[in-house]
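re the bet — no i am not wrong, look at it urself. input seq straight from the record:
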Amino acid sequence: MTTAEQAQSVIRTGNQAAAEGARLARVGVVCFFPIGPSDEVGEHLVEMVNRGQLDARVIDLENERSVINAQITATQSGVRSTFSTNSEGLVFAYQPLIWSPYARVPIVVGVAHRSLEPPTNIQTDDHDTIIFRDSHWIQFYCENAQEVLDTMIQAYWIAERHDIQLPVFVTWPGWEVSHAAMPIEVPSQEQVDEFLPPYELLPGRDLLTLDMEEFYSNASRSGGEGASYIEQRYAIDHTLNVVAKQAITEAHERYVEVVGRGYGGLIESYRTEDAEVILVGLANMATRGRQAADAMREQGKRVGVIKVRTLRPFPSEAIAEAVGDARVVMAFDRNPVHTLFHELRSALYSHPGRPAVLGRVVALAGRNFSSRDAEELVDEAFAAIEDPAAVDELSWRMETVAD
């Protein structure tokens, strides 16, 4: 077995870390169309190709829709590929992005989050991938550059499993993570090769042998005798919400075994064992939550944090177990449709001694959200324990407090 001692310590941005992960995964096709803040991923991969560090073909096309189609074609041809985009780029490629899970094409797309227009704002929130939450994509939300690198590698292992065959978003906050340089450990190529086997097409699924007329006939059939549409959709939904949960957990355990580092699989819990109030967030919203939890613990207030790593599949069972006997659960939503709030209410509806679920929309489009802001929201959560009627169930955090 290889060990984590073979890793290399370097300074990398989140975008560079994503490129390193794709390189270590031995991608053979780099699909590229620029949009900030994700475009640096493709730029770094092109540099790697030009320096001889990556044996891959670069496909530079006229828009994101064409690029996603190229990535799908490469993957169906038996070649591991990569692409990174965000915001309007994702929206432009909506049709092939929706097509890929229902055609069972295991592509991996990186996203450095950026807010959607109008008005024009190039700062970060996670609405650009939230809008795909009901499209049967596996969705990872990464907190820092290290998690970006490790998750990129794990994403291929998960997506390409013959019992999964679904596409994966690996996402991270634009600018705050995409362009922030931080120390990371890069595993050796030998370690990654031990963890991630070469890409093998599902038998009979490559473009050279696939009967496309039969495929489209089956895929488009919506009624009548012998219809298969509903059976196909059931299989995809079951794969995402049951099989993929198991695969993500296995990927975490296997990666820890080979590389020596992990993030808990579906969720990452912090000081939740005895918590009265638990904060829940995606990506670096969990960072602020942990800082607030530590500060509140010093005041004698029992606060814990759950970082949700996968919005899809949503880890309802893992969250319910981690919540335990907490009195209040508060979601930090970095999107205008308060996704975590609604997901948590659904997940905890049947939980014994059901906790109050509060939602706070925060940090949209790069609005500052400090640990002091998080602490004030924790105070609201404790106030809800004393008098639930005195605290709004759902509200938006507009003002900011400097650290």
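see?? The chain has two domains: 4-259, 267-396. told u. also Confidence is low (pLDDT under 50) at residues 221-226. so pay up
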